[in-house]
Amino acid sequence: MYTELSGKAIALAINKASRSIIADHGIKPKMLLIQVGEDPASSYYVQSIVNTAPKLGCEAELLTLESDCGQTKLLEIVLQANSDPTIHGIMIQKPLPKGIDDSLINLSVNPDKDLDALHPINLGKILMENEVFLPCTPAAVYYTLKYYGIDPKGKKTVILGRSNVVGKPLANILLWKRAFANATVTVCHSQTANLAEICQNADILIAAIGKPNFVTADMVATGSVLIDVGINEISKPDGGSTYVGDILFDACKEKAAAITPVPGGIGRITTSVLYLNLVKACLMAAGQNKVVDEYIDVIFNENQKKL
Ligand SMILES: NC(=O)c1ccc[n+]([C@@H]2O[C@H](COP(=O)([O-])OP(=O)(O)OC[C@H]3O[C@@H](n4cnc5c(N)ncnc54)[C@H](OP(=O)(O)O)[C@@H]3O)[C@@H](O)[C@H]2O)c1
What we know:
three-stranded parallel β-sheet; Rossmann fold; single chain; alpha/beta; six-stranded parallel β-sheet; binds NADP nicotinamide-adenine-dinucleotide phosphate
């Protein structure tokens, strides 16, 4: 019998930590959200971030730019926000329109305000186990393991996908020498040989490749933990659409000890991590940066559902 690892409880626990830190430290964190163009999926996500702000005691200012605003204009805005002391964190919605160099924009954000942890300095800090911000999706996976008491220490942990936003930072987080890390990590990608066989040997399998229902029951070990990062829109026979993960949920759940749903799993946690990063940024600006993990630990211990 499998356990469904719902993201809702984790998101609520992280939000509770953010609210407590804000109340105890008398801070008012403010985020600048920048959206370039009007992609409907991006607009939906960005609006849900904006709507979350008042519930946590934060402020979120949304700046929407025309898709043809140009790279120079975007850079000017980021540089201005970098030096504005009233803005503690910056988030730039991706993907950016053609003609804007993604890596240049990542590099332009002040690393102390980099809520997505995409600046090379912040990615490097993760490598050195000296993290300040954690990228939202890898952090959501880490907190899922921690919340449900699934310790990957010494476990064969396979990550499908090596992107800079998910696979690579997640692999490095799970290699940390601390609780809920210390994993033996294998990272697979489109050039990996014998991928199914590698998956079959995984104690913990994390899929982040963006291929609907790619992982089938014959690829997973009995009693393994399955974490699905993928969010894929697929067409339904009636002409509508729905979202599925990279793991074929109904078939794989029967073999798994635990599995995250899509939707309602990892994706449900990312906005909470984004705000936790904003709280960290605001505390850092006030000269304090050590308290966040302590709050998370206390709240997780109160609410944690151990497997
Ligand atoms: N839950 C969330 O909040 C959240 C956040 C971000 C992303 N996502 C979802 O997570 C998925 C991955 O996102 P991403 O941004 O990391 O994607 P990405 O940048 O497109 O990277 C996909 C990775 O998967 C690998 N891959 C593709 N096809 C493969 C195959 N057949 N076998 C093995 N590996 C394969 C690619 O290999 P190569 O490197 O060799 O090309 C690449 O490393 C997407 O579904 C995305 O929507 C979810």
